[in-house]
């Protein structure tokens, strides 16, 4: 018998046969609520919904416009050759890179766990979008990729949950998030080594933060034989420089002659399909043929050009179509310039209104809902509160903007890039200041118990918003007013509008905290206050500094209470505040009606938080390196972790 042959053996009184892999270690059990909360905090958005939105925004996915890729030699090498793990698809704006990747995903999906749980292939993808701060950074990319991996193989949550129990949502948001997620990502890949993993990332050029680190992760893990990557971007020298030495055979340029011809044919198919659907010429085949021929001649193999022209044709009457098409320049930049000229020549005040809308969408940190856009764009009241009027103005903005699921997006990153150049004469600080002022004006309408809750102890998750939701127009403002104030002030290093900050917080700080609690974003209050204190303290009056510090202490002391029951901002939080607290002095009239007079402590002592959940003496406490998480351990061997920023319990024994 061969000396190296395997034999059955007993381990811990269990009998195992040959070829059995055994893992000996801790087994963790997490409740469904814990898992759901972790996954909800993990994902910046759901990449599957992003894909659907993108396809709908671009008019749907046409198979004949992408299927050529499966005959491409570079793609076939990536798909079939185990030595080709990374494929980079690059091309100029509007060449159809995003829809190409959507098509690849659709074709690969049936053989992966996204559609077939018995499959041995895992597919995860992400669409970067430079105009949305939630999905335009490297950390968001990793969060999205990990989210889809766990969705396909739920047991992978174990690599995430333990750290999440210690740090909570800060695990994905603080300054160490990239480091933590990189480690988690690597561990998950090792756990999936018996499977084939495919990652697809669109628009690397729209990853505005930590792109180099993201590329390094891609390069590092492309050496694993069971991991394959497809990435896309514009032709960017910095991306080429970092990827070049690793994918000499894995670059698919859409401008190369053989590929450009296939792209042009795909654009032709796109033209034929969409022109045939124009309502104004359904009974005129001759006009269809002429339009299709002229569009193919002028398109220059660019999907985006065709998409923009189709939007113009949809507005025209049948007898105007050829004239409109003949007027259209063949260059994308020239098309955008024409759209801008048309806006400037609108009648009456409409150019001003369109300019306000474009400026607001351009400056916002994420896509705005129609209600948010109406409130932030300095429009007359009869327009700002009317969905129909806002939609009409958006259509007047040429084809720069599009509406999808009630939110407003740029039609393409190149549209925002063009406006960035065209509007370079406008002061970016002024744009931020305008949004800040509109936000403060809107939030000044906040009031106690804005949802008319019947119970002072009702939790946010149990609160039913009125219809219409009074917070809907103000959600963005509640979250980002301080960011816009900072960006309006940083150029001159002086607070742009100190009096308005002071008046708003003095009158509405509790209303603001209640609102943030209702929308599940109370920890953002500390971030907002600290951003002003830390970044602009040298230019703030001592009076405002003192009040901001008192607000910070108030949230740290009572944030966990307000987070659980928003109306307790006016109850226990005020009651237990010391008599010298500025918030208590300014806001005491806001106390709940049944509270009369309370003679509490004179001033806060040196501690800000009470460590709850221990049944014995606490013997050890320690902050995480970034100061955002506090861990405590007691004689009973219990250990608890709390978010330092919001005083909320983050974990248990």
Automatic annotation (TrEMBL):
UniProt cross-references to SUPFAM superfamilies, sorted A to Z: P-loop containing nucleoside triphosphate hydrolases, WD40 repeat-like
Protein name: NACHT domain-containing protein
Pfam family of the protein (one): WD40
Key word Repeat present: yes
The WD repeat ranges on this chain: 611-639
Domain NACHT: 85-243
Record InterPro entries: NACHT_NTPase, NPHP3-like_N, P-loop_NTPase, WD40/YVTN_repeat-like_dom_sf, WD40_repeat_dom_sf, WD40_rpt
UniProt KW keywords: Repeat, WD repeat
Signal peptide feature range: none
Gene3D superfamilies to which the protein is assigned, alphabetical: P-loop containing nucleotide triphosphate hydrolases, YVTN repeat-like/Quinoprotein amine dehydrogenase
Source domain of life: Eukaryota
């Amino acid at each position: 018998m061969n000396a190296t042959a395997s034999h059955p053996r007993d381990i811990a009184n269990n009998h195992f046969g040959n070829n059995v892999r055994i893992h000996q270690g801790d087994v963790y059990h997490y409740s469904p609520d814990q898992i759901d909360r972790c996954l909800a905090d993990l994902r910046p958005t759901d990449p599957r919904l992003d894909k659907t939105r993108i396809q709908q925004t671009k008019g749907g996915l046409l198979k004949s416009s992408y299927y050529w890729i499966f005959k491409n030699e570079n793609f076939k090498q990536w798909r079939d050759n185990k030595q080709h793990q990374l494929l980079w698809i690059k091309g100029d704006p509007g060449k159809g890179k995003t829809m190409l990747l959507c098509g690849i995903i659709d074709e690969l999906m049936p053989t992966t766990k996204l559609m077939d749980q018995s499959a041995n292939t895992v597919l995860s993808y992400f669409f970067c979008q430079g105009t949305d701060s939630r999905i335009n950074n490297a950390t968001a990319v990793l969060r999205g990729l990990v989210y889809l991996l766990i969705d396909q193989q739920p047991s992978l949550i174990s690599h995430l949950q333990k750290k999440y129990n210690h740090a909570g949502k800060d695990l994905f948001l603080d300054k160490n998030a990239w480091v933590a997620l990189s480690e988690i990502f690597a561990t998950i890949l090792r756990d999936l080594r018996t499977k084939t993993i495919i990652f697809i990332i669109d628009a690397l050029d729209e990853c505005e933060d930590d792109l180099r680190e993201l590329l390094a992760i891609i390069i590092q893990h492309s050496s694993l034989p069971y991991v394959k990557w497809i990435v896309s971007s514009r032709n960017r020298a910095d991306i080429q420089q970092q990827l070049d030495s690793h994918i000499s055979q894995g670059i698919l340029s859409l401008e190369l002659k053989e590929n450009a011809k296939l792209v042009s044919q795909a654009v032709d198919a796109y033209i034929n399909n969409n022109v045939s659907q124009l309502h104004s010429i359904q009974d005129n085949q001759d006009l269809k043929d002429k339009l299709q021929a002229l569009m193919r001649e002028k398109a220059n193999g660019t999907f985006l050009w065709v998409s923009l022209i189709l939007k113009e044709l949809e507005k025209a009457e049948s007898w105007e179509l050829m004239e409109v098409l003949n007027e259209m320049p063949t260059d994308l930049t020239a098309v955008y310039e024409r759209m801008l000229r048309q806006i400037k020549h609108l009648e009456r005040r409409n150019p001003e209104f369109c300019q306000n809308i474009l400026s607001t969408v351009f400056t916002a940190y994420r896509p705005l809902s129609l209600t948010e856009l109406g409130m932030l764009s300095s429009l007359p009241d009869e327009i700002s509160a009317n969905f129909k009027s806002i939609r009409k103005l958006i259509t007047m903005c040429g084809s720069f903007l599009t509406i999808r699921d009630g939110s407003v997006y740029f039609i393409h990153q190149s549209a925002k890039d063009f406006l960035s150049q065209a509007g370079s004469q406008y002061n970016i600080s002024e744009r931020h200041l305008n949004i800040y002022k509109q936000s403060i004006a809107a939030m000044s309408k906040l009031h106690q118990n804005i949802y008319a809750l019947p119970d002072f102890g009702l939790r946010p998750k149990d609160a039913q918003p009125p219809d219409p939701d009074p917070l809907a127009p103000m959600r963005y403002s509640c979250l980002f007013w301080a960011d816009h104030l900072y960006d309006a002030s940083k150029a001159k290093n002086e607070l742009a509008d100190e009096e308005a900050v002071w008046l708003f917080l003095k009158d509405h700080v509790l209303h603001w905290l209640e609102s943030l609690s209702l929308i599940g974003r109370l920890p953002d209050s500390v971030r907002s206050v600290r951003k002003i204190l830390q970044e602009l303290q040298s230019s703030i009056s001592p009076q405002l500094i003192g009040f901001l510090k008192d607000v910070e202490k108030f949230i740290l002391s009572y944030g966990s209470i307000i987070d659980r029951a928003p109306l307790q901002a006016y109850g226990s939080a005020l009651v237990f505040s010391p008599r010298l607290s500025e918030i208590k002095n300014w806001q005491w009239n806001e106390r709940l009606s049944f509270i009369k007079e309370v003679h509490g402590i004179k001033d806060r002592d040196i501690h800000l938080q009470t460590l709850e959940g221990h049944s014995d003496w606490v013997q050890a406490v320690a902050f995480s390196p970034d100061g955002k998480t506090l861990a405590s351990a007691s004689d009973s061997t219990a250990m608890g972790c709390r978010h330092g920023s919001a005083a909320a319990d983050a974990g248990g024994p």
